[in-house]
Write a structure and sequence with these properties.
The structure holds 2 protein chains of 2 kinds. Chain A is an alpha/beta fold. Chain A has 5 helices and 11 strands. Chain A is globular. In chain B, strand 4 (about 70-80) and strand 5 form a beta hairpin. Chain B is about 5% helix and about 30% strand. The chains are: A alpha/beta, B mainly beta. At the A-B interface, strand 3, strand 4, strand 6, helix 5 and strand 11 of A face loops of B.
Chain lengths: ~250, ~200
């Protein structure tokens, strides 16, 4: 069992919004200075708590997008129009605001690096966020762990971290990125143009003999389907780590 | 509390149900799914449920035998540590009291264990006295695999990770041991009303 980085009680602390990055029309990254941050592992998340002036509070969990090596903590949030917290984080929050949070949380869906096994990362939509922390960790640590990312988005405009992923894949240190666009493809699109299916996974995945570590994150139906295909392809179920988010949230 | 999130109003709830929502939770109407790996496939002819550990003889039921145990129908609010709460969920299954009936044990804790390798620990007194069930129907339908079918533990007064999906048995223990999430940063007990989400809460 993986040992967690979480040791004592996780206290609420304040982070200063140092930067806001609009990643797509619906998704933004909040880059925070958190003076008392104790560090994290790639794949972990934080709880965010908002407090109204009458004391009313709302909490949600968000995956950490930044590498452990990054001095600032970044979360990437998709705005859900009928949500409660995400429309505040993506729309209301400005540079210089403070955000209350605690973490890091979760000791299973994490990648530490320093491992010979290749990585297979499969993301749907904002499910890319914890996987991006792994990719950034890999890059920051000068790791050459062979890594393949298969990333499904609705359209080209919905691809989060598109430029950064392109740049990291161009380094030539063992990272490849395959995009699929499920709803709309630009003219001349050369990537996949359908939902992730078994044939696609068979093209992208490492041979079973290489014993990859597999992380899958996205909406529940996508994660269920992908994890099921991978089991059918005889990958070891214990090597397939999943994280899911349902249609609700906020 | 001193910190105020500038410009945050929030969506207020109706007060009728707000007393049923633990701190830090929000109400959902659908049924989100959370699990750490692929959904295990369990064929009913192979399914068994066992009680083992601190007892003289382990007890074991096949699916057919288990379905002959007295059935209870319960409607409960459930609370996931990822912040969602679902009110008035309707379940059908077997009370853990029924499963443990007549057993002599010195155990004070149980480890629920599942197909796929999941485990979670609970005090014995939290799964007895009408507080826990092994449920195989949700909302009048056989429990869907992604929600833990064929059968899952249902311990609605604790965070829902304690309600082990795909449960295949209970191990009776004299001493408490951390299960899967409890080894990965989550609270040993998990009372939503005391917001015991993580280690040290």
């Amino acid at each position: 069992m993986a040992r967690t980085a979480v040791l004592g009680r996780l206290n609420w602390q304040l982070g200063n919004v140092a930067e806001l990055v609009q990643e797509t029309p619906r998704v933004a990254s909040l880059v925070l200075d958190v003076p008392e941050w104790q560090g994290h592992l790639a794949g972990q998340h934080v709880d965010v708590r908002l407090t109204a002036d009458d004391g009313y509070q709302a909490e949600r969990s968000y995956s950490i997008a930044s590498a452990p090596e990054d001095p600032r903590l970044a979360i990437t949030v998709e705005r859900l129009d009928d949500g409660e917290v995400s429309p505040y984080l993506v729309g209301e929050v400005r540079k210089g605001d403070k955000i209350e949070l605690r973490g890091p949380i979760g000791g299973y869906f994490v990648w530490r690096g320093g491992d010979d096994r290749p990585l297979l990362l499969v993301a749907g939509g904002s499910g890319i966020v914890p996987l991006m922390a792994m990719i950034r960790h890999r890059s920051a640590g000068k790791s050459t762990t062979p890594t393949r990312l298969l990333y499904s988005s609705r359209s080209e405009d919905d691809i989060i971290y598109k430029a950064e992923l392109g740049a990291l894949a161009a380094v030539g240190d063992g990272l490849t990125v395959a995009h699929c666009l499920t709803r709309m493809q630009p003219p001349g699109w050369r990537g996949y143009a359908r939902r992730i299916d078994r044939a696609m996974l068979e093209e992208v995945a490492w041979p079973k003999a290489q014993n990859p570590i597999i992380f899958v994150c996205g909406p529940t139906p996508m994660v269920e389907a992908v994890a099921g295909h991978l089991v059918d392809m005889s990958f070891d179920a214990a090597s397939i780590k999943t994280e899911r988010f349902g249609p609700t949230g906020g | 509390m001193s910190f105020i999130s500038r410009g945050f109003r929030g969506k207020r709830r109706d007060t009728a149900s707000s007393s049923r929502v633990p701190p830090g939770q929000y109400v959902v109407n659908d049924f989100p799914v959370l699990s750490a790996g692929p959904t295990p496939r369990v064929a009913l002819p192979e399914w068994t449920f066992v009680v083992e550990g601190e007892i003289d003889e382990p007890k074991k039921w096949t699916w057919e035998e288990f379905r002959k145990l007295p059935v209870e129908e319960v409607t409960k609010d459930i609370h996931c540590v990822t912040k969602w709460t679902k009110l008035d969920t309707a379940w059908k299954g077997v009370s853990v009291d029924t499963i443990l009936e007549g057993l002599e044990t010195a155990a004070e804790f149980v480890m629920a264990f599942s197909y796929g390798g999941y485990t979670t620990n609970l005090p014995l007194e939290d799964v007895t006295g009408g507080k826990a069930w092994v449920a195989y129907e949700f909302d009048g339908q056989p429990l869907h695999p992604e929600h833990g079918g064929p059968a899952r533990l249902l311990v609605p007064h604790l965070y829902f990770w304690k309600s082990a999906k795909w449960v295949r048995g209970l191990r009776l223990l004299k001493q408490d041991q951390p299960g899967f999430w409890e080894s990965n940063g989550y609270n040993m007990y998990g009372d939503p009303w005391r917001e015991q989400r993580y280690w040290g809460d």
